[in-house]
Design brief:
By secondary structure, this protein is mainly alpha-helical. The chain is built from five helices and no strands. The protein is flat.
Length: about 120
């Protein structure tokens, strides 16, 4: 499923960004608040883990993942569009193209019918 691959690729990119951010913190880059920087690093790693979970469960066909993937793509759009208009065209397009593609695919009939699993039945005694 292409949407699951896009979400997993975004999670990988976010994890790489978190690694770079963590390296910069350890290398001694100046920060206004050390604990604020650590909190930002934890948020990056947590969001990457959440995106990996969304990708796995989207691949399995769970219904809730469509909403989670859509929210993630909207967040990417809110970062990607100002990046693009701010002069960083390559970085902005690298964020916007997958996000727009994923949004369009999330509303495609094949994805809607595939991602309709609600969960398993409770175990019988």
């Amino acid at each position: 499923m292409i949407v699951a691959l896009i979400v997993a690729a975004e999670a990988t990119a976010l994890l790489v960004a978190a690694g770079w951010y963590g390296y910069q913190l350890l290398a001694g880059s100046p920060v206004l608040s050390l604990w604020g920087a650590v909190f930002t690093l934890v948020l990056l790693v947590a969001f990457a883990a959440w995106l990996y979970a969304v990708a796995v469960f989207l691949y399995r066909g769970y219904r809730w993942t469509r909403a989670a993937a859509l929210v993630a793509q909207l967040f990417v759009l809110t970062i990607g569009f100002p990046t693009l208009t701010g002069g960083l065209v390559a970085a902005g397009l690298a964020m916007l193209v997958p996000a727009v593609t994923a949004i369009l695919l999330l509303f495609h009939n094949n994805v809607i019918s595939y991602a309709s699993r609600t969960g398993s039945a409770p175990p019988a005694l």
